Amino acid sequence: MNTGPSDCILLESNGHFALIDAAEDNDFPADKPHLKRPGYEQAVVDYLLEHARGEDGLVTLDFVLGTHAHSDHLGGFDTVILHPEIRVKKGYLRRYDGERVFILERKRWDNEEVHDQMYDALEKVGAQIVEDFNGEKTTLGAFALTFFYYENQPRFPKYGENVNSVIVLAELGKVRALLVGDLNYKTGDERRVADRVGKVDLLKVGHHGYVGSSSAYFLKKLAPRYAVVPNVKWRIYPDVKWKLRHVAHAELHTTVDEDGVIAEFDDNGEIEIHSGAAGHAEHT
What we know:
Blueprint: E1 9-13, E2 16-20, H1 41-51, E3 59-66, H2 71-74, H3 77-82, E4 86-88, E5 90-93, H4 103-108, H5 111-124, E6 128-130, E7 137-140, E8 143-148, E9 167-172, E10 175-179, H6 189-197, E11 202-204, H7 216-222, E12 226-229, H8 238-246, E13 251-254, E14 261-265, E15 271-275
Parallel strand pairs: 2-3, 3-4, 3-5, 5-6, 10-11, 11-12, 12-13
Antiparallel strand pairs: 1-2, 7-8, 8-9, 9-10, 14-15
Helix pairs in contact: 6-7
């Protein structure tokens, strides 16, 4: 979805829906006024109500998944989950451990707060909460989904929460899409992911295209035909933009410039890319 430089991905197949991340929100802790940012929670809710209602008039999400405890990924979840016209069956959310994150981020960011808001909302509506799901395989309509992540944060130096991102591999027939949260190459995880997954057709680019993500090895191994960046094009780091074009040879799409990006898959390995949040397609 077009949620500025934050992530929100709606999966749909055969009338089944799931939400991966829920974008930045307007909330911030009272002691952290520097975190006041434009939120997109209402835009996410409005999109779901417009495009994902069932015959009963409600939006049913088979699951929601938070890739990692940053507000530009988890912030909008409590609003979505607690909305009276949205029903969430299951929530995938890793336990948050502040000790695995460097101290400056623990003090200045609201990682624990957004994690706990999402967890409490899931608990309040009675959704099943899954905290350990590394390697789990599941389905959503015709999609085959695999969730995995790495737990190799070094004791020193420590990095931010981005390296703890959950990766989602979505497969439909011959088509493969890789959604990598804010994965970066600081602890070697991009190399591990590339070796594990191999070639894909579509890549949701990690960390909004900022520096520290999308190594040449990673992009060459994945060789995506399409790369989607949740950001505005001019904010993508020049090195990342160059590698997407000259190493991956990918067709680049950005969610802000195109007002949302919709990728429609079919069983024959074809992908159609549509711009604009008003679009809606089966097997998206």
